[in-house]
Amino acid sequence: MMKKPQPAALTRMKDTPSLQKPTFVLAFTAACFSLGLGFSAGANAYHEDNSTPQTNDEKQMNSIPTLATLTNYQENAPFMVSSGLPDAAHLSLLKEKGVTHVIDLIPGDRASEILTTSELGLDYFNVPVDWEGPTLANFLNYAAFMQNVDTSKDKVLTHCRLNWRGAAFTYLYRINVLGESEPTAKKDLMAIWHPNPTWYAFMNEVISHYNEVNGKQVAMSFEAAAPENH
């Protein structure tokens, strides 16, 4: 059977170069597309691997201490603040905030803090308070130093390790010497800790002493915390 002859026009269309499959164009386009992806991936890789690192100044800014990092920091009065154990950076910051005197209630070797406060030009005073046996003499020593402070221009930091001793001493000073209301001072005390029977007895002794001297009837409006069972 003979094939049916195709029309001449159709034959000419197949032979026309512009209508043939553009093989080299497709290949070139694919190559460019692949190359473009390569450049794009390379650009992304460069951006991620070469991101600008933090400068030393930025790292230093992120590591600058604040009072928020100072354990149990409190402002007890315009010229009184208290806290747990500060490091050299905290003491430097506190000096910038107006602190001129430091009362350290921690017993033992305090040479490091003595040196630091001396270098910063802060007036340092140590009242070594035994955690298991605070005494009336401890507080009277503390109060004597406090009363020599010029409250119009000076500011005192009272500190220990966790501000438990400090919170008790500042509470006692506020209600016995400054004449603040006990409920107001108690709020700051209780925000730090609830005194145990040993410290409650000590605080009651201090209050009784000042009541006798001043002819007042100041009293604590709370009971001692229940002793811990070991």
Describe the structure.
The protein is built from nine helices and five strands, in the order αααββαβαβαβααα. It is of the alpha/beta class and 230 residues long. It has a domain at 68-214: Protein tyrosine phosphatase superfamily (Protein-Tyrosine Phosphatase, Chain A, Alpha-Beta Complex), CATH 3.90.190.10. It has a five-stranded mixed sheet with strand order 1-2-5-3-4, sandwiched between helices. Strand 1 (74-77) and strand 2 (80-83) form a beta hairpin. The termini are far apart. The relative contact order is 0.10.
Main attributes of the structure:
230 residues; Protein-Tyrosine Phosphatase, Chain A
